[in-house]
Amino acid sequence: MRPFKALFRVIFGSDTDPALRPLLGINFVGSLAGSTMWSFVGIWAIKELGADQSALGLAYLISAAIGVATGYFTGHLSDHIGRRPLILLGWLAQTGVMLGFLAVGDSAAVGLVILCFGGLAFQIGSSASQALIADLVPPEGHEDAFAATRVAANLGITFGPPVGGLLLLIGSWNVLFAGAATFSAIGFVIAVLFLPARGAYSAEEPPSRGSFGVIARDRPFLLFMVSAGFAWLVYVAFETVLPISLVSSHGYSSSTWWFLLIVNPLLVTFFQLRVTRWVSGVPAAVKLAVGLPLMGVPFLLLNVSAALPVVLLTLFLFVIGEMLWVPTSQSVVAGLAPADLRGAYMGAFGAMAAVGFALAPFIGLQVRETFGDSAMWVLEAALSLVAAGTGAAAVRIALGRRPDEPEPVSATA
Fold it and tell me: pTM of the full predicted structure?
């Protein structure tokens, strides 16, 4: 066990809150299971089932739309019945979807229908899991805790695609799906054995008010959701539009992109917690104002040159911005949310990710087809600036809340 303990200390440090460790293990296994399979599902649908590309795109869109509604509803529900039941149900649903692919046979229609429910399965426990992080640690530890769980997830993302490729190499598509389902089932077992029913900082009583009305009146939070929507459009463009541009317009091979892609989770795995702790004294508004433009503005470098060093620099700056944005934004939401409505707030905020995954490829590729790559990167840079401005403004407004309003986010969150 010593090598594993040493690796844990290198990645997470020695001061990780013990209450958080079950979630670290669950996040790692969950992202390992998901990235083992989802990195290859599109290829499987087109090459193995003969699915039409437009039908596949529609299936992804439906999956994302279902995820938007599911994230808020299950987060709201977790405020009433607890986090643990929703998280366990999410694991069962994820395992069921993975096993469902084994029963597809050669039917493209059945495969795409199951794919449509991917957003449902993966969103059932997501909001509850995010809210549980804030339930387990004190407010001053939120940002560090969100960063740590993100590191665990990225560690799984680093290993997932190579494991999936190995399963395909030694077996078949069914071996891939069975392997991913096995990882997911292991995550369920870990959750059953170690996931706490509630955290030390959970609300004392279930909410006695409707979450939708509270959220609808919370102007700083609504503005922050707008910021998140723009930010996710930029983030998802990195994953979906950038590889198309590099391969189609600049002559990169698909294998080169896979190498470049792995740089992102590796940097997050080894540097996210360090970056988070280095900037712990910087106000949240400043981190958002700097981090979000770093995600979008460097894309403009590709209008000058797409040589490998320039691409690597773009990716490096993007990852720095991402490491500033993600845990800061999650901590801000945890600070904006009343304790009894934390799940609903996390669910509503998480829905913006599904919106990004639904719209970013469509918008980015439409602009690219009509106006070219240069216009597309100008758009992404502009979106990142809008996200930064609205996000920083939301935090500043939240700092001026009246005492009788929901607890404000701290200036250094």
Answer: 0.83
